Amino acid sequence: MQIATWNVNSLTVRLPQVLDWLQANPVDALGLQELKLTDDKFPLLALQEAGYHAVTHGQKTYNGVAILSRTPARDVVRNIPEHDDAQARIIAATLDTPNGPLRLINGYFVNGQAPGTDKFAYKMRWLEALREWVRKELAANERLVLVGDFNVAPEDRDSFDPVGLRETIHHTTEERQHFRDLLELGMCDAFRLFEQPEKSFSWWDYRMLGFQKNRGLRIDHILVSEALRPSVSACVIDRAPRKNPQPSDHTPVVVTLG
DNA sequence: ATGGTAGCTCTGCTA
């Protein structure tokens, strides 16, 4: 089975590209981020016609997440339980698979703007709450997958300019420690289970020909629990949608289990 | 040293 993540930066604008991509890449589940629309505007019918169920946690203007799946999702959670958050950044659900239930958490992690700002402090609090909740989810669900736009480049090799951007947003010691904390709970970065091309990125700034110059970051991730790790057979970044006219600034990441 | 682009909303914010 295959699970993917894609920050679409407005599902209203990107729906035709999502439908095209799903036709070419009929994954079993897809976590979407930055829908930038409310649930009443979610294109449920078009996605149902494409063969997907959907559970959504939408929001106007900013944020908004959804899980698309071939089979119905159950036990849906929206946002981190007991963590007050005005922003719609998390949706989690259980999928029933031939190998048993699989818990999928899809997140649009806080950007954080710059170290020292209120937004960065919010990012740190949000990551702490996420870590404590993932700890519980992992205790309850040994087959756990955490996908999304983490807004963290975990290592220097995940950035086009690790020296010039040292300790700037996505690159700070604190953000990277939070990423490692998630791994230390018993998750692993599926992408790094395999040999990968150098300068593999999942996001490129729209400005200054970022994609054309491959000035990007790897900030979209798929973490799998120890129980799932032996079944991971591939993990790739699909750069193709970033070449589309009117692309999202992010491109999909796909993991293959089994 | 600053601005560059995109989306949403409507003027500035977020990324």
Q: Could you characterize the architecture of this molecule?
A:
This protein has about 260 residues and is α+β, with helices and mostly antiparallel strands. The protein has a single domain (about 1-255), classed as Deoxyribonuclease I, Chain A (4-Layer Sandwich), CATH 3.60.10.10. Helices cover about 20% and strands about 30% of the residues. The protein has four helices and 14 strands. It has helices spanning about 10-25, 45-50, 120-140, 175-185, and strands at about 1-5, 30-35, 55, 65-70, 75-80, 90-95, 100-110, 145-150, 185-190, 205, 215, 220-225, 230-235, 255. The strands form three sheets. The protein has a six-stranded mixed β-sheet with strand order 3-4-2-1-14-13. Helix 3 (about 120-140) links the parallel strand 7 (about 100-110) and strand 8. Helix 3 (about 120-140) runs parallel beside helix 4 (about 175-185). It starts with a strand and ends with a strand. The structure holds one DNA strand of 15 nucleotides. Keywords: Hydrolase, Magnesium, Metal-binding.
Task: Give keywords.
258 residues; alpha+beta; Deoxyribonuclease I, Chain A; six-stranded mixed β-sheet; 21% helix; 29% strand; globular; DNA-binding
